[in-house]
From TrEMBL, chain A:
Belongs to the binding-protein-dependent transport system permease family. Keywords: Cell membrane, Membrane, Sugar transport, Transmembrane, Transmembrane helix, Transport. Residues 82-271 form the ABC transmembrane type-1 domain. Its main location: membrane. One of its GO terms (cellular component) is plasma membrane. The keyword Membrane applies. It is found in: Cell membrane. The chain crosses the membrane at residues 23-44, 81-104, 116-138, 150-171, 192-214, 252-271. Pfam families: BPD_transp_1. This is Multiple sugar transport system permease protein. It comes from the Bacteria. It is a multi-pass membrane protein. GO terms for biological process: transmembrane transport.
Automatic annotation (TrEMBL), chain B:
Keywords: Signal, Transport. It comes from Cereibacter changlensis JA139. GO terms for biological process: maltodextrin transmembrane transport; maltose transport. This is ABC transporter substrate-binding protein. One of its GO terms (molecular function) is maltose binding. Belongs to the bacterial solute-binding protein 1 family. It holds the Pfam family SBP_bac_8. InterPro entries: SBP.
From TrEMBL, chain C:
Residues 96-312 form the ABC transmembrane type-1 domain. GO terms for biological process: transmembrane transport. One of its GO terms (cellular component) is plasma membrane. This is ABC transporter permease. The lineage of its organism: Bacteria, Pseudomonadati, Pseudomonadota, Alphaproteobacteria, Rhodobacterales. The keyword Oxidoreductase does not apply. InterPro entries: ABC_transporter_permease (IPR051393), MetI-like (IPR000515), MetI-like_sf (IPR035906). It comes from Cereibacter changlensis JA139.
């Protein structure tokens, strides 16, 4: 169970016997890994090519140019979409971190009538696919004037059953004594949750944050339906409409795609360790 | 009571805009994204605002694929536009769905409309009311790449005039690479583009058929003539091998990239083809058949007034609609977008008729037909599928045609 | 229901008033009542949210599925007409078949691939983080952006990346998205590609959670690598595998982004050969405005997903 135990043991094992089989496996894995990133590599490579060079299939452009980026960025739309996506993904993530853990904590650490009912009710929403809700959401948004607004894009995801369940699992591992001690010190329940319980589950919080952020950053279906004006598009929607506009000017489309992908790639390269750990945590407990 | 509500609405409306422009009425104009159209509309709005300082017009645009949905959605949310551009084929839906309102006959007298516009404008009339007016009309023509013609030993100043000449020219321009793959198409095959219009209103007639009954309520192309027309079309790929569906993703893209010798497209493409620098191109009337029969397909986007426009917004919307349907606006639209003016006297000037690019389209307008679509998207999809069944799945022309006719009749019947 | 907090309340009570910042409005109330006050304070907004944003729309969707509604007029109750129409519509069955093809072919392939890679990757130390990153990167890309990259890859010669490569080595072209046979597998590949990284990571986490003592014991017993894999690793990985089967199945059942973006000029591919249920729902609702009919389709999707989830619960209970 201890995650550090197995790597060290297998490392010492690996050191002892470096067999030709290992090298073959390594090479196959390496080639497979290269294949996995080939689309990304050519997306970036093509974004630095002129229209005439697109089909030369060279990974390193013969004469790299930033023209595509200048053309794509010049009208300011991509910047706007980037800001929209950032604002929406961050707001929804904060909301989830706050509410999911508050509800998860309440369900894990308090005994009250209706607790089980609420837990089952929230959990059961996991079974309802978003696709089933979009039509009612759409009508609701239309009646309340939420169509084509930030709130309209964000409201469905402000709390999730997945996050609540994940956080409940983690709060259950906190000993009650910690909380009781805080009560004796006279802290109110909100403060206990916020100051005492939350710091104890930071790995889960970051896992939840990573998942929610990624999910909202790449979300397509609902934003496609709820947004109408270009000013409110998120990056995925903006990119899609941009690509249709460009017909088959692949160097422009690849530049747009690169711009849409770059932010998450950079974040990943910086925080790889945490993201992988977060995905593991969320995947196993969720 | 009614005035009270109106007053409340006005108060709410003015308090919203009060911060930005005192007293000015702001109206919204919607159209779909197409670079030259947006540019042209920007120019028209500037000119209009200069002449009407008390009115501001906000232009809102959406991708074409989503445009209709956006209009319906916004209408439901009561956030619809005051003036909107719409395809003539959507009129039934938009009138039925209370998206647009009839044009006031005092502001837009019917006898003037019918005297000054091309007759296809009547497709905007329902009962006694007109529901919109076009700025420009569009027709089809054959575009040809002069460089490829020269390279293939053809005379670039003598483009094909008949279907047989067209196939011969396409054959001469077709190039295959060493692997037997098409590298330059003699002709583009793109049912999703304008080919479905060409097949319906032009080829079917040229092969002796009628695509629909006179009121467009019955599909009548499922006969020998229709089959011959469809066979001619699909044989371009299957027998003559001068083109291939899906080549370069879209026909217009292939032509633009200099990889296709011939393509059939509309006036609206002139704006985007005008930026081609790598080769010379020309445009000519759609080819006639051996007996000299010609046909064409004309269509237009009209501008209508949204149902939500009331009071001074309605007055402003009417003013704006009148302006963008004026001869002055049509000239700007022709210069920027390349679409033909919807008023006869603005379109059929000597200058335009002598223009090598506009003339073929204007000539086409003379004998063009306008399909009364019930559901343009579904009927287009039906034509795409009809061709795909033959080109990809190897179905026989007759079977595919019969299936398409049945499906299209169902689409038409469902709307009743 | 007799909770610890309740039992402990009387003893702790004296401590509270003396503390600075103690809750004045709670004074005089029992600890239990005060806690209930907090509990419902915490839950008020979430309960409202789940009620209005999740449960009401769910019921609404069921109701809409029984109506005929084009957004422009009032909804009209038509009983189960939408369902009878759907079940007699060949297009629906085609879409249904497509959706299950994504699921039935895509899930095993992606699971086997990700397990093999995770299994191999787990034993490799040299450049482990780097290799893992290569496999994981596609997972954090935006599906709609990568769909366009793949669309370019799949084009016919002379513009398609893969066909250009094939052409250079003299292999005949593949039609990919232009073929009714290959369009769906082509799109499926992009979906597998995008999801592989996640599954690899989860499998690796599952592999690491197996205590090394099990392996050591097995080696002492003289079991070979193959038997260890079959008798220890795979059985112990069952919860992980079940989770991934369900996760991946749900992903394939809901496939949309890739199909939408890769077939914009003939939505759903040539002759609808790639069209999944969600794209049909989208088109019915937001291109044809048949809200009631679309709602009926979402009910079908809901039912399928429900079966998959119940299957997961049943499989895990068996353990």
């Amino acid at each position: 169970m201890n995650p550090t135990a197995s790597p060290t043991t297998s490392r010492s094992l690996a050191m002892k016997r470096i067999r030709p089989g290992r090298i073959v496996i390594w090479t196959i894995l390496f080639i497979g890994g290269l294949l996995m990133v080939t689309p990304l590599l050519f997306m970036f490579s093509t974004s630095f090519k002129t229209a005439a060079q697109v089909y030369d299939l060279r990974l390193i452009p013969a004469a790299p140019t930033l023209d595509n980026y200048i053309r794509v960025l010049s009208d300011g739309r991509f910047l706007r979409w980037f800001l929209n996506s950032s604002f929406i993904a961050i707001t929804v993530t904060l909301s989830n971190v706050f509410f999911d853990s508050l509800v998860g904590y309440t369900l894990a650490k308090f005994r009250f009538r209706g607790r089980y009912l609420i837990f089952i009710a929230i959990l059961s929403t996991l079974m309802i696919p978003t696709e089933m809700l979009v039509i009612p959401w759409y009508l609701m948004s239309a009646n309340l004037g939420w169509l084509d607004s930030y709130w309209g894009i964000m409201f469905p995801g402000m709390m999730t059953a997945f996050g609540t369940f994940l956080m409940k699992q983690f709060f259950e591992t906190i000993p009650d004594d910690f909380l009781e001690a805080a009560r004796i010190d006279g802290l109110n329940e909100f403060t206990i949750w916020w100051r005492v319980a939350m710091p104890l589950v930071t790995p889960a919080l970051s896992a939840l944050a990573i998942f929610t952020f990624l999910g909202n950053w790449t979300a397509f279906f609902w934003p496609l339906i709820v947004t109408t004006s270009q000013e409110l598009y998120t990056l995925p929607i903006g990119l899609s409409s941009f690509a249709v506009e460009q017909a088959i000017q692949w160097e422009m489309i690849m530049t747009g795609a690169a711009l849409a992908t770059l932010p998450t790639l950079l974040v990943f390269l910086l925080l790889q360790r945490y993201i992988v750990r977060g995905v593991m945590l969320a995947g196993l407990k969720g | 009571m009614r005035t009270q509500i109106l007053m409340a609405g006005l108060l709410a409306g003015t308090s919203l805009v009060a911060g930005t422009a005192a007293q000015a009425v702001e109206i919204e104009y919607w159209q779909y994204v197409y670079e030259t159209r947006v540019t042209a509309m920007d120019q028209l709005i500037d000119a209009f605002e200069a002449a009407n300082p008390d009115i501001t017009v906000k232009q809102v645009t959406f991708p074409y694929a989503d445009y209709q949905t956006r209009v319906v959605a916004a209408n439901m949310a009561r956030k619809g536009p005051d003036v909107l551009q719409m395809f003539y084929g959507w009129t039934d839906q938009f009138v039925g769905g209370k998206v647009i309102q009839p044009l006031s006959p005092e502001v837009f007298p019917h006898d003037e409309i019918e005297a000054e516009f091309f007759p296809i404008v009547t497709a905007m009339k329902r009962g006694d009311d007109y529901y919109g007016l076009p700025t420009a009309v569009r027709s089809l023509a054959l575009f040809y790449n002069k460089d490829l013609m020269t390279k293939a030993g053809l005379d670039p100043e003598n483009p094909p005039k008949t279907l047989d000449e067209m196939v011969a020219a396409a054959k001469a321009m077709t190039e295959m690479d060493a692997g037997g793959n098409l590298s330059t198409a003699g002709m583009t095959l793109d049912m999703g583009g304008q080919d479905h219009q060409w097949w319906r209103e032009v080829l079917v007639r040229q092969f002796g058929g009628e695509p629909y009954s006179a009121d467009y309520s019955q599909v009548t192309y499922n006969d020998a003539a229709g089959a011959a027309a469809l066979k001619f079309y699909t044989d371009l790929q299957l027998v003559e091998k001068v083109g291939q569906r899906g080549f370069m993703d879209e026909g217009q893209a292939a032509f633009r990239a200099g990889r296709a010798g011939l393509t059939i497209d509309g006036t609206f493409r002139l704006g985007s083809f005008s930026s081609i620098e790598d080769f010379e191109w020309g445009v000519t009337e759609l080819p006639a058949n051996a007996e000299g029969v010609r046909s064409n397909y004309a269509s237009y986007f009209a501008n209508g007034i949204g149902i939500g426009a009331e009071g001074e917004e309605l007055a402003a919307a009417e003013k704006f609609l009148a302006y963008i349907s004026s001869p002055e606006a049509m000239k700007i639209w022709l210069d920027v977008v390349g679409e033909l003016p919807a008023r006869r006297d603005v379109a059929l000037t000597e200058e335009n008729l002598a223009d090598p690019i506009y003339a073929p389209f204007l000539k086409g307008l003379d004998y063009a037909k306008t399909t009364l679509f019930i559901d343009e998207a579904a009927q287009r999809q039906n034509a795409i599928d009809m061709a795909n069944r033959i080109l990809i799945d190897g179905q026989s022309v007759e079977e595919s045609l019969a299936q398409a006719a049945e499906a299209e009749q169902a689409i038409i019947d469902k709307a009743k | 229901m007799a909770s610890m907090a309740n039992q402990g309340a009387p003893e702790r009570r004296p401590g509270i008033p003396g503390t600075p910042g103690g809750q004045p409005r709670g004074r005089g109330l029992s600890m239990r009542t005060r806690q209930l006050f907090w509990v419902w304070g915490f839950l008020a907004l979430p309960v409202l949210f789940y009620g209005v944003i999740r449960f009401y729309p769910t019921l609404n969707a069921f109701w809409l599925s029984l109506t005929d509604w084009d957004l422009m007029s009032e909804p009209e109750f038509i009983g189960i007409d939408n369902y009878t129409r759907m079940f007699s519509d060949p297009e629906f069955w085609k879409v249904f078949r497509n959706t299950f093809t994504y699921l039935i072919v895509g899930t095993p392939i992606s699971l086997v691939l990700s397990f093999l890679i995770a299994f191999a990757l787990d034993r490799i130390r040299f450049g482990h983080t780097f290799l893992r990153a290569l496999y994981f990167l596609p997972y954090i890309t935006t599906a709609s952006a990568m769909a366009w990259v793949w669309r370019w890859f799949y084009q016919p010669a002379p513009i398609g990346f893969i066909n250009d490569l094939l052409g250079r080595v003299g292999i005949p072209q593949m039609a990919f998205l232009n073929s009714t046979t290959w369009a769906l597998p082509s799109i499926m590949v992009t979906a597998i590609w995008a999801g592989l990284g996640f599954q690899i990571i989860i499998f690796m986490a599952g592999l690491r959670a197996i205590p090394t003592t099990y392996y050591e014991a097995a080696r002492i017993d003289g079991l070979g690598e193959a038997s260890i894999l079959r008798r220890i690793t795979l059985p112990l990985l069952k919860p992980t595998t079940v989770f991934l089967v369900v996760f991946s199945s749900i992903g394939f059942l809901r496939i949309f982004d890739q199909v939408y973006n890769m077939t914009t000029n003939d939505p759903g591919g040539p002759l609808g050969s790639t069209k999944p249920l969600v794209l049909m729902i989208y088109q019915t609702a937001f291109s044809s405005y048949e809200m009631g009919y679309a709602a009926a389709q979402t009910v079908v999707l809901f039912t399928i997903l429900l079966c998959v989830s119940l299957l997961q619960l049943w499989l895990l209970r068996e353990r």
